Amino acid sequence: MMGPRRQDHNKESCAASLNAVKDALYVLNGKWKLPLIIALQDGPKRFNEIQKSLGEITPKILSKELKDLELNEFLVRKVFSTAPVIVTYELTPYSESLDRVINELKDWGLKHRERLVKNRKTESTVAELTASL
Length: 133
Prior knowledge:
The chain is mainly alpha-helical and about 130 residues long. The protein has helices at about 10-25, 35-40, 45-55, 60-70, 100-130; strands at about 45, 75-80, 85-90.
């Protein structure tokens, strides 16, 4: 279900909604934070494992994103005093607060892609028909 519709809006509720969305986007900004959280959903991983699972992320960006997620309490960095030292990253229980958001984004993304593919097919069919006339 979507948020309140126009008839339910007033200046204060509009400003509160806008601020809440800005806060959420500030914490989850960029293209890597949510995929990073998804990559860690099946358990703790080491830095290189995370990088491999995400594909094209650079070590510098991955390091920054991991620090941001740690600061916002979505993951915890664990250092094991072995030889050599092992460092893992794992989600905190708080990260589960994003499960609904991630599922909604996934569902919307699937529908959006389907819509674009369908519209491209329709446009190319119309273009083919027009060209054959």
